[in-house]
Design a protein that fits this description.
The chain is of the alpha+beta class and about 400 residues long. The longest helix is centred in the last third of the chain and has 22 residues. About 30% of the residues lie in helices and about 20% in strands.
Length: about 400
């Protein structure tokens, strides 16, 4: 299984941080560079119909080698990394036989990953862990998934005596900015169902995710010299601050878990004349989700009534929906993954995704697509890490899923 580590270490060196501001697909040029490299590798492995389209989507098929009809299964991962933290010049560090203590990521900058902050580290005592050097994220989200998929299909291609149905492979751009499925051609992909390899710790198996919206609220003010501002100045930042305080203070990511939804303030910008707040809105229950959006709309209307029409402007868009509605009718595909995990010695954890994956949108596009662990922890920041043994088990799970489908 050294190959999965080698591939992962290669892929994280590509700068594929996505960008919400470019309006392009892929949103950054590095993603296309990696897409072409992955397509080249798939061709070398022996996949057929390998392609990279103008938007950076990579697809390929490992043909069936059995003489009966079985479902065509797909495996999908995304190539981009989060814009929340730098993904440029990633310098992964390999820590063998981890001793279960705090990990010094960067001695010069005194960056330490502490067990007190991340107690799950102790679960990997004695294992090999790949970390960052503390100055960038790692990219296990989702280059671990990419490496695991390619490792599995390469293994099958090199061992034709292992019988399997058709495997359809897909790699997407811009998942981290909610656009990973925008131009995904489900018909061209050709699978009956698929799995994203985009989960966290070993054992995760997910077919529920948030309903998700993005809201940008802009506040209009009026600037006047502060020495002459009485009854004339309107400070947009003060309005924005007051608005933010109107939202439920405990319904935020840092105070919620499980099936609890939230409002998450992700950006605030401005001056006296104009300010803006950007929120992501999340909830598993559709009624609660709609209620959250309505609260934002009602607050904007209330402020416009109080301060004058046009003072507050709202731009709100739906991003994705809970895949459960589309996966439950074919829940046997979740059962297959759960059985595969058990057979390779992994304890399944069927839990909701407090986020989203490409699979959530693909499920609504006609490709039911639960999510499987890729093995990483602490995504989107300097403390991201992935245990090697978790990546190896993810490869085993892919191969066992393929085996179980071939025997159906």
């Amino acid at each position: 299984m050294n190959t999965v580590v080698d591939k992962f270490l290669k892929y994280v060196k590509f700068d594929t941080e996505s960008d919400t501001e470019t309006g392009l697909t892929p949103s950054t040029p590095g993603q296309m560079v990696l897409a072409k490299e992955l397509a080249k590798e798939l061709e070398e492995v022996g996949l057929e119909n390998v392609s990279v389209d103008e938007n950076g989507y990579v697809m390929g098929v490992l043909p069936s080698n059995i003489d009966k009809e079985v479902p065509k299964v797909g495996f999908v991962a995304h190539m981009d990394t989060s814009p929340d933290f730098s993904g440029k010049n990633v310098k992964p560090q390999i820590l063998e036989n981890y001793n279960g203590l705090d990990i010094v990521l960067n001695k010069e900058q005194d960056i330490v990953m502490k067990v007190a902050d991340f107690p799950e580290l102790t679960n990997y005592k004695g294992q090999t862990i790949i970390t960052t050097d503390g100055t960038t994220l790692l990219g296990a989200d989702d280059k671990a998934g990419v490496a695991e998929i390619i490792t599995a299909v390469e293994y099958l291609a090199k061992n034709p005596e292992i019988k399997h149905g058709a495997l359809h492979v897909g790699f997407t751009p811009d998942e981290e900015i909610g656009k990973g499925a925008d131009f995904f051609d489900v018909k061209k992909f050709g699978a009956d169902f698929a799995y994203t390899l985009d989960g966290g710790e070993i054992g995760e198996l997910q077919y529920e995710n948030f309903n998700a919206a993005f809201a940008k609220i802009t506040f209009k003010g009026r600037n006047v010299h502060p020495g002459m501002a009485k009854d004339k100045m309107i400070n947009s930042m003060s309005i924005a601050n007051e608005f933010a305080a109107c939202l439920p203070k405990d319904e935020v990511p840092e105070k919620t878990e499980g099936y609890q939804g939230f409002y998450h303030l992700i950006a605030m910008n401005g001056g006296v004349e104009s300010s803006s707040l950007q929120y992501i809105i999340r909830d598993f229950d559709m009624n609660n989700y709609e209620a959250r959006k309505k609260l934002i709309e009602d607050l904007c209307a209330e402020y416009n009534q109080k301060l004058g029409e046009g003072t507050v402007t709202l731009e709100m868009t739906n991003q994705y929906y809970n895949m459960r509605e589309k996966v439950e009718p074919v829940k046997y595909i979740v059962d297959i993954a759960e059985e595969a995990m058990k057979e390779v010695g992994v304890s399944p954890m069927v839990i909701p995704i407090r986020g989203g994956t490409d699979g959530s949108r693909l499920s609504y596009m006609g490709l039911p697509c639960p999510n499987i662990f890729a093995g990483g922890h602490n995504f989107h920041g300097r403390f991201e890490y992935v245990p090697v043994q978790s990546m190896e088990k993810a490869v085993d799970v892919i191969l066992k899923i393929v085996d179980l489908i071939a025997k159906r």
